[in-house]
Amino acid sequence: MAVVTGASRGLGAGLAARFAEAGLALGLCARHEPPVPDGAAERAVTAAVDVTDPDAVDRFADAVVERLGRIDLWVNNAGLLAPIGPLRDVDPGELRANIEVNVLGVLHGSATFARHVRSRPGGGTLVNITSGAATRAYAGWAAYCAAKAAVDHATRVVALEEADSGLRAFAVAPGVVDTDMQALIRATPPERFPSVDRFHRIREEGAYNSPAWVADHVLGLLDAPPDAPVVQRVPDEPR
User: Fold this and answer.
1) I need a surface site. Which of 35, 139, 186, 206 has the fewest CB within 10 A?
2) Mean pLDDT computed over 3-17
3) Active site residue: 19, 60, 144, 170, which one?
4) Is the pTM value of this prediction over 0.90?
């Protein structure tokens, strides 16, 4: 059974669809209640959840467990790119929202899942969606780069703290996936995001990883070897 946050569209919806194809029961949440993948209605729980509210995340997990049983895989996918632009110019409210969703949302989901794993026998797999922006600085993405760097290191901490419970924690950068976030990037003027041409070239070349490709990599982590790196990037999908 897998939980996916930010499952209403983009990568999250793609992960949910692929997990359903693989026969997993699903707990799906987002700011707006996400759709149920085709054929999964009898084994899915969906809800509108604010991941910045730890109590709401806990309540969602409880509802999923009550309906579907133990959670084996938890994917913290919910995230924001905005604000885009020089840090000196960004709106403080947007800056706060980015950190609250991208960092606190991941921490809340990780904590909820860690408590769940310790509440029952057996281990579990935690996947926090990160980005190459965690290690590559982009002018105009101060909040996003900082948040993803925090996700990487927080995941390393969770892996250490929860090893004795059997919880495996991974920060997974999916590569470039053609989502609404990519459309937002391409629509940003160069004065706010100087690297925008790179993302136009990626679109022209079709150099994307599909959500299904990313999902298969995530599913592979359920049987990852003991020495698998905590922070990793999904390989480029063959074209």
Assistant:
1) 206
2) 97
3) 144
4) yes
